[in-house]
Specification:
By secondary structure, the protein is an alpha/beta fold. 55% of the residues lie in helices and 13% in strands.
């Protein structure tokens, strides 16, 4: 049995990840590929508990290094207990965020830098990376305006706008360094325009990986 493929979807707040996860799922289903959905932080019961710690608002200031280590703690559990077992069985996995989010949010947004994160990534994930990453890109002001309509904000969504500009720049830096893996999608257009771009990336990936 061939190993499954791991696809991730990334982006700042309000870029439309949920809508396009549904589109990707249906597109692959039409090709006869069933997808296991998951998310980060989270994905397993223990990792979901860590998610609650990370997203909950609190009076105590959370140190950026603490936040980063908790992210990777949840990720290690997620990878070992859910992602890797599914891939080994030949199943395809689609995750709402993965390690790129840590580089963007903690490395760039929290200004911890990429070098230390790369060391942590190499040690904890031992070279594991997504096979394809769809990065939905949108001007921060538009994304935050969309996110406002979703209701109460979590701890990350409550950050200042400068933080999100750094996050976006972090994502774009990764895409520039790894253009074969991370495909940048202009999410500022209509749903149809966005999904045409996603479909193009999926077609190329599918054609390169079909049995």
């Amino acid at each position: 049995m061939s190993r499954g493929k791991f696809i991730t979807i990334e982006g700042t707040e309000g870029v439309g990840k949920s809508t396009n996860i549904a589109f990707i799922t249906q597109w692959l289903a039409d090709k006869g590929i069933e997808i296991l959905h998951t998310r980060e932080p989270g994905g397993t019961p223990f990792a979901e508990e860590i998610r609650e710690l990370l997203l909950s608002k609190r009076e105590e200031i959370v140190d950026s290094r603490t936040e980063l280590l908790l992210m990777f703690a949840a990720r290690c559990q997620h990878l070992a207990q859910k992602i890797e077992p599914a891939l080994k069985k030949g199943q395809w996995v689609l995750s709402d965020r993965f390690t790129d989010a840590s580089f963007a949010y903690q490395g760039s947004g929290r200004e911890l830098g990429f070098e230390r994160l790369a060391e942590l990534e190499n040690w904890s994930l031992q070279g594991f990376k997504p096979d394809l990453t769809i990065m939905l890109d949108l001007p921060i002001e538009i994304g935050l305006e969309r996110a406002e309509k979703r209701g109460e904000k979590d701890r990350f969504e409550s950050e200042q706008i400068e933080f999100f500009h750094r996050v976006r720049n972090g994502y774009l830096a990764i895409a520039e360094a790894e253009p074969e893996r991370m495909k940048v999608i202009d999410a500022s257009g209509t749903i149809e325009q966005v999904q045409r771009q996603i479909e193009k990336a999926l077609i190329n990936f599918y054609e390169a990986n079909k049995d």
